[in-house]
Amino acid sequence: MSLEADTSTLQISLLILQFLGATSLVGFLGLYTAWLAFPPELLIEAVVDKSKAFNSESKIKIKNSGRLPALAIKADAENLCARIGGIQMTDCGIYGGQNLIGRLAHGETSEISVRPGIGMNQGMHISEFSYTLTLKYQAKLFLLKKTLSKKWKVQLRNFQDGYS
Known about the structure:
With 164 residues, the protein is α+β, with helices and mostly antiparallel strands. The protein folds into 2 domains: 1-37; 39-163, Immunoglobulin-like (Sandwich). It contains 2 helices and 10 strands. The strands form 3 sheets. Strands 3, 4, 5, 7 and 8 form a 5-stranded antiparallel β-sheet that branches. Strands 1-2-6 form a 3-stranded antiparallel β-sheet, with no helix packed on it.
């Protein structure tokens, strides 16, 4: 037993659904579901040492492994403990900085400073440095916007023959 649909009934049904806005609503719900299922996902891919002598010039390589682009990426540092030259900082925080990366598409990478929000001269040596890095970023679908965040514990370690 097979059911055959009358083509004129199908066309009339589609016209009624289009008039009611159901086809655009179904398309929007599909896009919204994809937005929720495949959000941008940031991860730290590597730490890049720009100079073997000065650890203050290191960079953190960020990668977007999600399907949608990550927008307006900002970095906050909490529980910052550092010793830079003769300056000692304990339990500090750096919040609400400028956008470090405007847009990071799927599979794309970018580098941020290992010391977000701290201005230093080039060629300085950091003796102690640890903090909780929070990357805040947005996912956008038409007029809808969702703010996401990820946290990592970052700690500089100095050794006899270098640092990591």
